[in-house]
């Protein structure tokens, strides 16, 4: 099992003090194809696009993230991967 990688050097303008992590399967350069995740507290997970430091931060519950991850593991979103 792989663990999330802490992203250094990225600051989202709407949440500059938040610590972000990304998938170990993303490009090493977080300016390319990375979705970033952050623990915003109280069961909320922030999600944003690494390519745009002014991108909005989506706020999702842990149960929403759990459902998305389960769907990805089951192949539900393979139609979006281009493979």
TrEMBL record:
<feature type="domain" description="DUF397">
    <location>
        <begin position="19"/>
        <end position="73"/>
    </location>
</feature>
<protein>
    <submittedName>
        <fullName>DUF397 domain-containing protein</fullName>
    </submittedName>
</protein>
<dbReference type="InterPro" id="IPR007278">
    <property type="entry name" value="DUF397"/>
</dbReference>
<dbReference type="Pfam" id="PF04149">
    <property type="entry name" value="DUF397"/>
</dbReference>
């Amino acid at each position: 099992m792989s663990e999330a990688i802490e992203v250094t050097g990225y600051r989202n303008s709407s949440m500059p003090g938040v610590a972000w992590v990304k998938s170990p399967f993303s490009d090493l350069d977080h300016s390319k194809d990375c979705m970033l995740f952050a623990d915003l507290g109280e069961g909320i997970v922030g999600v944003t696009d690494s390519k745009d430091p002014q991108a909005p931060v989506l706020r999702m519950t842990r149960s929403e993230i759990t459902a998305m991850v389960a769907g990805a593991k089951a192949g539900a979103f393979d139609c979006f991967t281009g493979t």
